[in-house]
Amino acid sequence: MDITLIRTFLEVAATGSFVNAADRLFVTQSAVSLRVQRLEDSLGRPLFTRSKAGAEMTPAGREFERYALSMLKLWEEARQQVAIPEGFTESLTLGAQYSLWPRLGFRWIDRLRAARPALTIRAEIGMPDRLTRFLVEGVVQAALMYTPQLRPGLEALRVMEEDLVLVAAWPGPDLAELPGRYAFVDWGPEFVQAHALHLPALTTPGLTLSLGAMAADFIARRGMAAYLPARYVKRYLDAGQLHLVHDAPIFPYPVWALFRDDLPVALRDAAVLALRGVATEMEGEQEAVLDALEGISDGVEVLGAS
Q: Which CATH number covers residue 46?
């Protein structure tokens, strides 16, 4: 069985569209159609009902989906096991959103390598939908993200409460100075709603960045302001490149880890222990930023709190 056909089938099933599947796989729509047709010819059954609205799985398609996931999982397990270098006995592939690799994901790798010298590690990056797909398919066994998407075979662990703080690229920033110099970083629907309610003057700044923590470098170099994770911007604050906006509310933003439930228990326990250790270190760094914010504010409110 051609594993490319399996991946293509699962992508169409996940997106409900040949067009969207083609975009995610970086191939043409005709290539996706051809692959699905080859799979249907091999199975002797149509797997999708095509329409202008997209592609809906037939009963045969729904039945085949669980086998497709199992085949892909076995393939990934075999690929990773065969790829284990000499001198190592186990492997683990970790994923994380870009904003969570620096200071969390990288430290997680450090602790795991120190605790299990015979463990070979591979790292992946992606947005939640891509990471979730990788988890379901067995491409990664654990992933860090802000907005977990639970699926059968996955379990979620709340790692820590991250706080988004308002920072600016000039000393002594004030909320009244931000209009015209503010970049709206989209941290998800709950943040958008709370932001619109409590900071209406900054709701339509003319610049929206769906870049997560990558926006830190952007605003630091362009004399702007934005909401960013406290632990991520600490080094910018220490270097004097960014400054906390006094009296600005904070926004709690939890970090989650998703694990495949078939991950060996000993390896999962080691990964969780290492991750909790890193989270404990980071909480101290975050508290330092929040203490600094309290020191220049009359009181720190929570964005979205009633």
A: 1.10.10.10
